[in-house]
Amino acid sequence: MSLLTVAGVSKKEKENYLLKNINFVQLHGQKIAIAGETGSGKSTLLKIIAGLVQTDSGEILFEGTKIKGPFEKLLPGHPYIAYLSQNFELRNNYRVEELLQMACKVSDMDAILINNICKIDHLLKRRSNELSGGERQRVAFAKTLVTAPKFLLLDEPFSNLDAIHRSILKSVIADIEQRLNTTCVLVSHDPVDLLSWADEIIVLYQGKIIQKGTPEEIYNYPVNEYVAALFGKYCIISPQLVDLFPSLAKDKRRFLRPNEFVLTSNKNEGLDVDIVDVKFMGNYFEIAVNVRGSKLIINACNNPSINRDHAFVRLKLEAQQSHHLE
Fold first, then answer.
1. Are residues 149 and 37 in the same domain?
2. Does residue 40 contact residue 205 with C-beta atoms inside 8 Å?
3. Which of 31, 112, 259, 297 has the fewest CB atoms nearer than 10 Å to its CB?
């Protein structure tokens, strides 16, 4: 039996749909990420799943039982589903251990385990107003986990965190899934967060699902330019370029990623292209080229040692296994 079933869920605000006919199933342990621009309905969907917002039509089943909305029960929410908002709040002037004790529904041993997983053992005696942003986020995680949820909805958990705290929080989420056997749904604007974590990605646009698939399918085979742009830089393959790359005609691909091109000095392997720009990006070079009036972006892992005054360089498309999504 599936853990979560979302069936025909719609939500309107005045005359506009916030969500329209949303359908998907999540299994125990499956990691689902929800992507989309601001206003696409991501947070609204999470709140409906959590039982915090009433759906206008459709239903959500958790372990086979319908989740009731705030119009159907006195106290909104589901006892085994936890929603962690990006605007989480901790009460000021309370010690961390006091905040956790007030919310705790697990045994002392489990509470110790959760503190360890969230890396907050050393913060228990501190007051909430003495914590950094990353520390507050991890305490909020622990406060949520001690309520003993089976299902965790994470709404932009990495927002406003620096690289160090993002890395720590990612390891916390991985430990939550593995050591606590908790299933998660994650919303994030950062494509790296989603692509490296998810088993399946659901892309929302104006309240509708426009694509579902594995990270590899979403990244390499976006259904349109909106999806392509959500997950990083891309090149639009215009009709006049398709004949240059025979594999594209077979796969019917319209978008390529910069990592799918390589530079070569072998005339028999590539095309003549005009170099527009070369940028050093840290662990790779980003090279802009012009071919038949179209701009393409190439990632080169090593210093290409290109004379920027030289008019041409050879380009080839790396061989890829054919994978056309119907």
1. yes
2. yes
3. 112
| Domain final residue, candidates 170, 195, 226 | 226
Yes or no: say if 124 and 115 are a contact pair by the CB < 8 Å rule. yes
Domains contained in the chain, number: 2
Q: Are residues 157 and 258 in the same domain?
A: no
- Evaluate whether residue 128 is within a structural domain: yes
Closest by alpha carbon to 127, among 104, 100, 97? Answer: 97
Amino acid at position 174, single letter:
A
Kindly report, residue by residue over 4-61, the tens digit of the pLDDT.
Answer: 999 999 999 988 999 999 999 999 999 999 999 999 999 999 999 999 999 999 999 9
Cα dihedral sign for 149, 150, 151, 155? positive
- What tokens were used for 6? 């979302």
Q: Give 205-219 pLDDT, tens digit per residue.
A: 999 999 999 999 999
- Show the domain range for 242: 233-317
Tell me the two tokens of residue 231.
């997950």
Give the list of residues 6+ apart from residue 280 with CB closer than 8 angstroms, or none.
Answer: none
Give the CATH number, domain containing residue 264.
2.40.50.140
DSSP states along 11-47: EEETTEEEEEEEEEEE-TT--EEEE--TTSSHHHHHH
